[in-house]
Amino acid sequence: MKLWDIIIEILIKFGGSPGTAETEGDIVRFLLPSIFWTALLINAQNRWKIRKEKKEYVLIFAFSFGLFRELYMFFNFLIVRLGKVSLSFMHLFFPPFEHALLTFSVILLAYAFLNFIYNLNRFAYLYIVSALGITGLLYIITAIDWHRVSILYPGLKFGSYWGDAAFHLLTATAMFVPLYTTFIKFKEGMLHKLLFTAFLFFFLDEILMLINIAYKEYYAYIFVPIRHNLHIWAIPIFSVVYHIEIKEKLKRANIELEKQNDKLKALDKMKDGLIRDVTHELKTPVAKQKMQIELLKKILCQQDSNEVNRNKIINTIETSIKRQENVINNILNLYRLEEGGRKYQIKPVRLDSMLEMVLNDYQIMINTYKITIKKSLPIITINSDEEMIFHIFSNLINNAIKYRNQSGSPYIDVSIKIQENWALIMIADNGIGLTEEESSKIFEPFYQASSSFEGCGVGLIIAKIITEDLGGEIHLESKGKNQGTIAIVKLPLKGFNHGKNNFSNRR
Question: Which residues span the domain enclosing 448?
Answer without folding.
Answer: 343-506
